[in-house]
Amino acid sequence: MGDRARSTLMRGLVGIMVGNGLALAIHGPATANDAVTQLRETNACVGCDLSGADLRRYNLAGANLAKANLRDVNFYQTNLTGADLSGTNLSYAYLGNANLQGAILNVANLHRANLTRADFTGASLYSTVFGEAYMENTIFVGALMSLADMRDVVFTSANFQGADLCGALLSFGDYRHQCVD
Fold first, then answer.
1. Which of 1, 85, 119, 123 has a CA that sits 20 to 30 A from residue 67's CA?
2. pTM of the prediction?
């Protein structure tokens, strides 16, 4: 191969590499904004990283957010009725006045989440970890909370009427008498 042919080939290869590099820069990994767009358009974002997103007042009824990273997400007054939040990381999330009736939060992490006036009526919170979550006027009426870990929760007030707390770990009380063998 002559010098001229080699030079032309090298310029072509550099052009391809630069072109591919620009394409990667333009179409690189999904950002949090892309994940929010996907969630708004499809009402689903399984395994997405939405950490730090502002989802205030969104209507996410029936949304599928299973295994998503929802750390530090603002869900103030968000409708999450019947949403699948199983296996999610909701640590440091703000769920003030959020509607989570009938939502599935099995094996979710709510460490240091703010649950002020959140409504979990009929929600499934099996094996959910509430480590140091803050609860004020939080509603858990009829919720399934078997094996939930609430040992370090900061309770101002919460309504557990009819909730299944079988095997739940709490800093106060013994709820094993409610369990059915």
1. 119
2. 0.80
